[in-house]
Amino acid sequence: MPENVLEVRGLRRTFGAVRAVDDVSFVLPAGGSLGVVGESGSGKTTTARIVVGLERADGGEVLVRGRSRTARGRTGGRVGARAARLARAREVQMVFQDPYLSLDPRTGVGAALRETLRLHFPGRDHTRRVTELLDQVGLGTRAADALPRQLSGGQRQRVAIARALAVEPAVLVLDEAVAALDVSVQAQILNLLADIREQTGIGYLFITHDLGVVRCVTDEIVVMRHGAVVEQGRTEEVLAAPGHPYTRLLLESVPRPGWDPQAIAAARRAL
After folding, report:
1. pLDDT score of 236
2. Structure pTM?
3. Domain of 144?
4. Where does the chain have alpha helices with state H?
5. Which of 33, 88, 157, 270 has its CA 20 to 30 A from that of 64?
6. Which letter, b or e, does each residue of 156-184 get, where b requires 16 or more Cβ atoms within 10 Å of its Cβ?
């Protein structure tokens, strides 16, 4: 396996006159955890959607396990395009902020997992694998018959993680995956993700605005503003001694004793 499980090279994406992603590059080592941070509108989610294949880049390249996975247009007919999408999905999976919106409210947990497994691995008996996945995310087989509305927010996010892990991807993209959860539940999910990374060697790409999450779970960090990368490096080094004024502004914006929101607002206007 290549040392870097994911490489993003010079990604660009525009929407009209807006440069949502402007020459973004970074690498994710196998088994590593990379945080992409920035405010709303910084381009971090668009970058994630390009990596997963939900958005098409105007330029640049995405490589997974050393192979290009950049969408190049409709080639090979519908069958070939579907096969390419499935192959990419088996390598890169995404967990969204609100699992209730990404889960079918009419489908039970076990059935949702079996549906994913049948799509990617047809013709097999997936009963044992469903049990393994539920155990892996700390739910157990009793949750197999539950509908999403019968679960708590943390339990639904565990289901979403189990579904993403079903195909054993190389990269798991987590787009604000704990932002909608209570603080105590956030800690449980982050600990779960840390255990899964240790057990499987999967690579994480965390998309978040929460510097506390980044500090806890990532090895390296990429800071984005107005679609471009303004700073990147080892997480502890960047957060301890940020080199870019925008990174310093993000750190100073975190509420704490003595926090002055008016001063932060003035610094933001100046920047």
Report:
1. 96
2. 0.90
3. 4-240
4. 44-52, 77-91, 99-102, 109-120, 127-136, 153-165, 183-200, 211-217, 235-240, 245-252, 261-270
5. 157
6. bbbbbbbbbbbbebbbbbbbbbbebbeee
CA 126 to chain centre: 26
Q: Is residue 257 part of a domain?
A: no
Q: So what's the pLDDT on residue 263?
A: 80
Confidence (pLDDT) at 262: 82
State how far the Cα of 209 lies from the Cα of 230, in Å rounded to an integer: 15
**Is 200 a domain residue?**
yes
CB 93 within 8 A of CB 164: yes
What is the CB neighbour count within 10 angstroms for residue 19? 16
* 179 in Cβ contact with 97 (< 8 Å): yes
For residue 165, give the 3-state DSSP assignment.
Answer: helix
Buried b (16+ CB within 10 A) or exposed e, 34-67: bbbbbeeebbbbbbbbbbbbebebeebebbbeee
Taking the chain (271 residues) in consecutive chunks of 10 residues, what is each chunk's mean pLDDT? 85 95 96 94 94 94 90 57 78 88 90 94 91 94 92 93 94 91 90 94 94 92 96 96 93 81 80 78
Sheet holding 220-225, edge to edge: 92-95, 171-175, 203-208, 33-37, 220-225, 228-234
Instruction: Name beta bridge partners: 232.
Output: 222
- 268 located within any domain: no
For residue 247, being part of any structural domain is answered with no
Enumerate the β-bridge partners of residue 222: 36, 232
User: Residue for token digits 């007919």?
Assistant: 77
Query: In the prediction, which pLDDT does 1 show?
Result: 45
Model pLDDT, residue 13: 97
- Report the number of distinct structural domains present in the chain: 1
Q: Please give the DSSP secondary-structure letter assigned to residue 149.
A: G
